[in-house]
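Justification of resources, computational component.

The compute hours requested in this renewal are based largely on the per-chain cost of generating structure records like the one below. Each record pairs the submitted sequence with a full structure-token output. That output is archived, and it is also reused by downstream analysis tasks.
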Amino acid sequence: MAGYPTVDVMADYIRQAAIARGIDPDVALKVARSEGLARNTWQSNLTRGGHREPSYGPFQLLKGGPGTGYRTGMGNDFQTATGLDPADPANWQQGVDFALNQAAKSGWTPWYGAKAAGVENMEGVGGARALRTADQLTRPTTPADVGGMPGGTMPAGSPAGIVPGASVPAATAPGPGAPGAVPPAAVAGKPFSFQMPDMASYYRQGASAPFQGIIATPQPPPLDPSGGSRQAKLIEQLLAQLKGGQA
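The structure output for this chain reads:
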């Protein structure tokens, strides 16, 4: 359908967003394919009492309420939480993020398609953690944050939850060793180096090359205004720190 994301694009995003949360991506895709992840599908084709079900996107977020013939659902919760309309295909990535956050917190019970596909409530989500949406984490970046990437903003379509150089709240950070986990040094603001998941498919058209990894660099110590050898020594220390963080 013109103006709508393709099934392949949505499937790739679901896989990466699931991995970032510690959700089994194959299970997430199995649920989505039993819901709305199919060609020529955006709004549900089910009808009841003359009303077409107002469920939208790959995870069929239900936006019910008065006049729709349906109860309120996850689409209403999504709209309240983000201010975005789940019926608008421009918001499909945020809708995926929201759906996977709900699955990470409470399992697949809200999706009838999960049961139809033989997916148990907590299948593939044990130990998963919800992440904040990409738009909530968008912030300016610098070349130091993103390995030389020009300053700008984190693409809104990026997998949510990891932002270059940003602190990660303990309540939402994945556990050590979990997919998308941020080393403890990141929260402490110390030098570190780690590899992120492949993010190529999340850059908007015309954006920069995909991340190969992110290096968080320490802030330089204040220079002595009097100049002289102290400044030179501090610069040498900073260069040594940077070199150590890239090892």
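The first helix runs from residue 7 to 21. The radius of gyration is 21 Å.
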